[in-house]
Amino acid sequence: MELLSGADMIARFLQDEGVEYIYGYPGGAALHIYDALFRQDKVKHILVRHEQAATHAADGFARASGKPGCVLVTSGPGATNAVTGIATAYMDSIPLVVLCGQVMSHLIGDDAFQETDIVGVTRPIVKHSFSIRHPSEIPEVLKKAFYLAATGRPGPVVVDIPKDMTAPTERYEYVYPKKVKMRSYNPVTRGHTGQIKKAVELMLKAKRPVFYTGGGVVTGKASEGLTDLVKQLGFPITTTLMGIGAYPQSDQQCLGWLGMHGSYESNMAMHHADLIIAIGARFDDRVTNNTSKFCPTAKIIHVDVDPSSISKTVRADVPIVGPSSSVINEMISLVQGKSITSPEALTDWWQQIDTWRADREGKLYEPSKPGEVLKPQEVVEALCRVTRGEAYVTTDVGQHQMFAAQYYKFDKPNRLITSGGLGTMGFGFPAAMGIKQNYPDDDVVCVTGEGSFQMMMQELSTCKQYGVGVKIVNLNNASLGMVRQWQDLNYKSRHAHSYMESLPDFHMLIEAYGFTAITVNTIDELEPALERAFADKHELVFLDVKVDPFEHVYPMQVPLGSMRDMLLSKTERT
Amino acid sequence: MRHIISILMENEPGALSRVVGLFSQRNFNIETLNVAPTEDPSLSRLTVTTVGDDRVIEQITKHLNKLIDVVKLVDLTEGNHIERELMLVKVKALGAARDEVKRTADIFRAQVVDVTPSLYTVQITGDATKLDAFLNAMAPLGILEVARTGVSGIARGDKVLSL
Ligand SMILES: Cc1ncc(C[n+]2csc(CCOP(=O)(O)OP(=O)(O)O)c2C)c(N)n1
Ligand SMILES: [Mg+2]
């Protein structure tokens, strides 16, 4: 039997759980825990420069690896600084365990120094939270936290730890709990066979089917199965922003992604489909546009591990509650050996889709001419070429995010790392940092904008401390481009606070941290700069790419319209 | 339509705030709320009445079930059930009104449980419509204070809500 203090139990538990990196920032209420981490060397603590960055870094790691990320912050301001990151993870169903120091238990409720009710503050943005009430509970509560974060529909879990729970003087028995059971939590392990059969019958009979798959296929590690199923059936597939890469985008059957800035052919195919096979997607308003005009002729099969996602915004005809992987596997075995009822109809459907595709080919944007200011789209296309489409690409939020998602082609899941649900500016750089530390031999690039980057740029200091060689591509349009786009479209180009006056000299800023910066102005400078940036995997390089501030993201769905109502450029609409 | 949802949940600090928070967070409505421990000290029973169409009620039960602290729940209005609420009312009882209060209480099978020279405190149980009717009857006499427990309910027959 081993006797450990609460703080040592935490350090020990993290080792036993296999946590390699924990991202955090110290402060009074967390100091016993920091001391315990200091006295061991298996779990590596990464000192960020702002707690929000700790949550995004852990979140980035979780998105890339499929394993829970782990964060440690102190009470009060430490914990409240983490809130945006917790909400970001919650909206995208990312497994995260956030350990928060808290004031001593006898002070709780007294407005003690650095006290906030963080369990209360985060209640609507966590999957669950715990408060430690006795040090002996620590191993079991932490096990539950990791279990809850990673299973079922994943999400963030907060553990509130009053300082006296980690006091070095009190020791209790420590045993690593290999398993936990919770009577009130039993995530489904498979879908209803009858419903799956019904779904497959509809699929085989469909004339204009389309797969619409989301982040649930990525977090559910079902992308191989999905690829098999879609290939066997020969149906078109479109994914959500969160589902990008779960099916290889370079494959003919992939129509790209759908929704507000999704591809023309995806949105057209959805609108005209007679069957939508939704897997691990939640019919979010950025996808459906106006739900009352959504896909008027389609029957809907909806597979989701979370029953509350089904029929939340759009009624499902065949609801299936279950994890994407097992449901997909069952579908595959039911489809095997069978053929679709009407191959001619599917051929016609493909002809229609190919016409839509051809309609927009070469018209998506106009590349810059030599000497002219660069188009953001061509920068992303060049980035994709130089990294052979294999990099981990994180983004911030804005036009650059949409361009990154549109013009980088992803053939693997977990490669586009973006804040889809919350749309958190500041996410991209710390997320890239978290990924690079865990995958030092891969290319990790943050595609950002000068607005977003300035929200978390203090992390340059963290990258310096730990030698994190991420690449940063700053699509610098000297404005809050996405806001400006909306103002162009909806406010007669009244640019209220959407431009950035007094931008720093990014070149000097980056050099102040001891890193390399390259400023790119024209097309002939672009590829050499990218090649230079990616030459050394372990060097942080910042590309300040000056791009056209007047560019808009298209297609763009028309507000309150159907899926097919889109602006296609500044002058064309469907 | 009005629904009565009864929930067995972990008797843990924070559990109640998660349930209540869910309703405000997702814009669901709460008409009444009643919560107390059960015969099993590790479980509380919470009963909530809410109004919504089928789609909303489906979302409410799904989201409640998703809360980690919620062990089991039932929508009592889906089957035959017994619904009760307890109410204490202080009513002015002076002069002729004193008899009138007593008579009305008798008609409703309510009991006078406390008296002063100027008022009666009346206790009444029943479903919400009966309690509303009683309040209507008492209103002209001068209601001074009302305390209602909110609805509690249980299914009729062999059906049992337990682990
Ligand atoms: C934290 C946060 N604040 C505000 C917004 C609203 N917002 C969305 S996009 C955007 C502009 C982003 O500008 P920039 O990072 O330069 O990207 P660009 O659109 O110019 O590519 C803003 C302000 C947001 N998404 N997140
Ligand atoms: Mg910008």
UniProtKB/TrEMBL annotation, chain A:
Matching InterPro entries: Acetolactate_synth_lsu (IPR012846), AHAS_TPP (IPR039368), DHS-like_NAD/FAD-binding_dom (IPR029035), THDP-binding (IPR029061), Thiamin_PyroP_enz_cen_dom (IPR012000), Thiamin_PyroP_enz_TPP-bd_dom (IPR012001), TPP_enz (IPR045229), TPP_enzyme_TPP-bd (IPR011766)
Pathway: Amino-acid biosynthesis; L-isoleucine biosynthesis; L-isoleucine from 2-oxobutanoate: step 1/4; Amino-acid biosynthesis; L-valine biosynthesis; L-valine from pyruvate: step 1/4
GO term, biological process aspect, one: isoleucine biosynthetic process
Transmembrane found in the keyword field: no
Statement: the UniProt record of this protein carries the keyword Oxidoreductase: no
Cofactor(s) this protein requires: Mg(2+); thiamine diphosphate
Thiamine pyrophosphate enzyme N-terminal TPP-binding domain ranges (all copies): 5-119
Name by which UniProt lists this protein: Acetolactate synthase
TrEMBL record, chain B:
GO cellular component: cytosol
Cytoplasm as UniProt keyword: no
Name of the molecule in the record: Acetolactate synthase small subunit
Entry keyword Transcription regulation: no
Assembly description: Dimer of large and small chains.
EC number of the protein: 2.2.1.6
GO molecular function: acetolactate synthase activity; acetolactate synthase regulator activity
Transmembrane feature ranges: none
Alphabetical keyword list: Amino-acid biosynthesis, Branched-chain amino acid biosynthesis, Transferase
An annotated GO BP: isoleucine biosynthetic process
Pathway assigned to this chain's UniProt record: Amino-acid biosynthesis; L-valine biosynthesis; L-valine from pyruvate: step 1/4; Amino-acid biosynthesis; L-isoleucine biosynthesis; L-isoleucine from 2-oxobutanoate: step 1/4
Pfam families linked: ACT_AHAS_ss, ALS_ss_C
Catalytic activities: 2 pyruvate + H(+) = (2S)-2-acetolactate + CO2
